[in-house]
Amino acid sequence: MLELRPNCQCCDADLPPDSEDAVICSFECTFCKDCAEKVLNGICPNCAGNFVTRPIRPKELVKKYPASNQRILKEGGCQASL
Predict the structure, then answer these.
(1) Distance of alpha carbon 44 from alpha carbon 81, whole angstroms
(2) Can you give the pTM of this predicted structure?
(3) For residues 77 and 58, what is the distance between their CA atoms, to the nearest angstrom?
(4) On the CB side of 26, how many CA atoms lie within 13 Å of its CA?
(5) Using one digit for the tens of pLDDT, what is the confidence trace for 63-72?
(6) How far is CA 14 from CA 1, 7, 28, 47, 81, in A?
(7) What is the 8-class DSSP label of residue 55?
(8) C-alpha angle 67-68-74 in degrees, rounded to nearest 5
(9) 72 DSSP 8-state letter
(10) Which of 15, 21, 39, 70 minimizes the number of CB atoms within 10 Å of its CB?
(11) Given pLDDT bands bounded at 50, 70 and 90, which one contains residue 80?
């Protein structure tokens, strides 16, 4: 089950469970669309994988299966991918 991480690992922007601005890689590294496109050029800086839009868990299921509240932030921010 997806953790639904609460923030962008680059800029620390809030990404609530119903955010349409969240993208993830296959390892569930989580970024906002702006950082994923403009800073990372569509490539995860952790695994070099691509990004897809993070699914939105229905509100009634978020109550039963809550989103993570652990914020993960890349030390020093993100650098553009080559």
Answers:
(1) 8
(2) 0.91
(3) 31
(4) 5
(5) 999 999 999 9
(6) 20, 5, 16, 22, 22
(7) P
(8) 135
(9) -
(10) 70
(11) low
